[in-house]
């Protein structure tokens, strides 16, 4: 079968023309980037794990009434999704101080925030995805007021659900990013959840040890990225067929690294 036409290639995914009008095939890569692609690398098998994790979370969100672009997973690395017009705003939901929030405001990493914080960034790699306000969004017409209400409502609902989902498997949902798109029906459009939800775009810490189970392991040169992503998939009950299903202990990885460095 001939390869479908490539529409777009991003840092972690490639989008291809879908089999039916209004659909797209989303392919998950093993490429890893950090600091607006200033740091690049590969996490072997990451695409397979992110595909499964994102499929699982999007399916569960659909079951509680959150509209998403997800249709079905096609194979280990690809899923069929609805074609949407991406709103150029990255929505960051924060429950615990970490990353850029700690750095900018001097709040100790790991501090529980007094309330869930929603931040908006303008999606533009060349500009470094700058932090923006709702005033910026309204001024430049990136989204309407009604769309922003829908986005904020969905972000809070998704956060409530995911906090419970991850707490149930001993993981603290520190923060995560979301993207939304417009799904058109004639001239009418509605906002739905798009992109992916995976350890690439979430900060996930073990509730007991505070071990990082996300892309921060790559950002901060901690090593053990594959084991961390596998651990999240294992706890969610999603390890792909054929992979070892024993507990992937990051403590073992750490001791091995210390031995090699020593």
TrEMBL record:
GO terms for cellular component: cytosol. The keyword Metal-binding does not apply. It is an enzyme of class 6 (ligase). PANTHER family: MULTIFUNCTIONAL PROTEIN ADE2 (PTHR43599), SI:DKEY-6E2.2 (PTHR43599:SF3). This is Phosphoribosylaminoimidazole-succinocarboxamide synthase. It comes from the Bacteria. It catalyses: 5-amino-1-(5-phospho-D-ribosyl)imidazole-4-carboxylate + L-aspartate + ATP = (2S)-2-[5-amino-1-(5-phospho-beta-D-ribosyl)imidazole-4-carboxamido]succinate + ADP + phosphate + 2 H(+). Pathway: Purine metabolism; IMP biosynthesis via de novo pathway; 5-amino-1-(5-phospho-D-ribosyl)imidazole-4-carboxamide from 5-amino-1-(5-phospho-D-ribosyl)imidazole-4-carboxylate: step 1/2. InterPro entries: SAICAR_synt/ADE2_N, SAICAR_synt_PurC, SAICAR_synth, SAICAR_synthetase, SAICAR_synthetase_CS. PROSITE patterns: SAICAR_SYNTHETASE_1, SAICAR_SYNTHETASE_2. GO terms for molecular function: ATP binding; phosphoribosylaminoimidazolesuccinocarboxamide synthase activity. Keywords: ATP-binding, Ligase, Nucleotide-binding, Purine biosynthesis. One of its GO terms (biological process) is 'de novo' IMP biosynthetic process. Its EC number is 6.3.2.6. Residues 6-235 form the SAICAR synthetase/ADE2 N-terminal domain. Belongs to the SAICAR synthetase family.
């Amino acid at each position: 079968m001939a390869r479908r036409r490539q529409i777009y290639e991003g840092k972690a995914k490639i989008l291809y023309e879908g089999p039916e009008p209004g659909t797209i095939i989303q392919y998950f890569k093993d490429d890893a980037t950090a600091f607006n692609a200033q740091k690049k690398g590969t996490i072997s098998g990451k695409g397979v794990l992110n595909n499964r994790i994102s499929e699982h979370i999007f399916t569960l969100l659909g079951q509680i009434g959150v509209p998403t672009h997800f249709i079905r997973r096609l194979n280990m690395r690809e899923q069929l999704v609805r074609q949407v017009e991406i709103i150029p705003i990255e929505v960051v939901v924060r429950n615990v101080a970490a990353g850029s929030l700690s750095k900018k405001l001097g709040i100790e990493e790991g501090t529980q925030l007094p309330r869930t914080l929603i931040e908006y960034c303008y999606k533009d790699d060349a500009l470094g995805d700058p932090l923006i306000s709702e005033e910026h969004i309204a001024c430049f017409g990136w989204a309407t007021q009604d769309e922003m209400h829908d986005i904020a409502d969905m972000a809070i609902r998704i956060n409530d659900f995911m906090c419970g989902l991850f707490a149930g498997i001993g993981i603290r949902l520190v923060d995560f990013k979301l993207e939304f798109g417009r799904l058109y029906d004639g001239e009418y459009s509605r906002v739905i959840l798009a992109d992916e939800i995976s350890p690439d775009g979430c900060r996930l810490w073990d509730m007991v040890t505070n071990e990082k189970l996300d892309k921060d392991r790559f950002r901060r040169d901690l090593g053990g990225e594959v084991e961390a992503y596998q651990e999240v998939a294992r706890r969610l009950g999603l390890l792909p067929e054929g992979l070892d299903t024993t507990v992937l202990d990051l403590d073992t990885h750490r001791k091995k690294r210390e031995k090699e460095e020593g």
